[in-house]
Amino acid sequence: MADIITPDLCDEFPEVEVVEPGFNNYGGHKAFGGEIVTVKCFEDNSVVKEQVGLPGNGKVMVVDGGASKRHALLGDMLAEKAASNGWAGLIIYGCVRDVDEIGQTALGVQALGTHPRKSEKRGLGDLNVPVTFGGVTFTPGDYVYADNNGIIVSKKSLV
Questions:
Q1: What SS3 string covers the chain?
Q2: Which of 91, 106, 112, 154 stands 20 to 30 A from 99 (CA)?
Q3: Considering only CA atoms, which of 54, 84, 58 is closest in space to residue 145?
């Protein structure tokens, strides 16, 4: 994949949507992008766990965790599984944990913050439904690109 530099992509494709600031970069890959797969869940990462176990094919999982800062939706073991199964990255509207290990993983990860408590496992969550946060709607099949400058969303592949 070509270099992902979101300011350059915004200049070249002014129609892209830009997610409101507030996300931090935690993964070993600081710039990443790909086709969107969505998960909507709240303090239960059961669906995230299922999905990282499947082939990612260079896609990005966008997880709407309801901005909860009471549990982490991703830790080192799931991040490693996502990387080994070919996911380009995860964008989590919520928290992550094990950030030192995630930072050494060949995966892009952005989230609102960190929290040491793991999520509950109740088997709840929705897969591939449109999710909205940061002023943008993420639709499965669209594309997302992220780096240290921010996150952008496009209806078409840009790189």
A1: CCCCCHHHHHHHCCCCEECCCCCEECCCCCCEEEEEEEEECCCECHHHHHHHCCCCCCCEEEEECCCCCCCEEECHHHHHHHHHCCCCEEEEEEEECCHHHHCCCCCEEEEEEECCCECECCCCCEECCCEEECCEEECCCCEEEEECCEEEEECCCCC
A2: 154
A3: 58
Q: What is the pLDDT, as a whole number, of residue 120?
A: 87
Q: Which two tokens stand for residue 39?
A: 């998960």
pLDDT the model gives residue 97: 98
Task: Give the distance from CA 134 to its chain's centroid.
Answer: 13
pLDDT at 76: 98
Residue 39, pLDDT score: 98
Residues of the chain with pLDDT under 70: 1-2
Considering only CA atoms, give the Rg of the chain.
14
pTM: 0.97
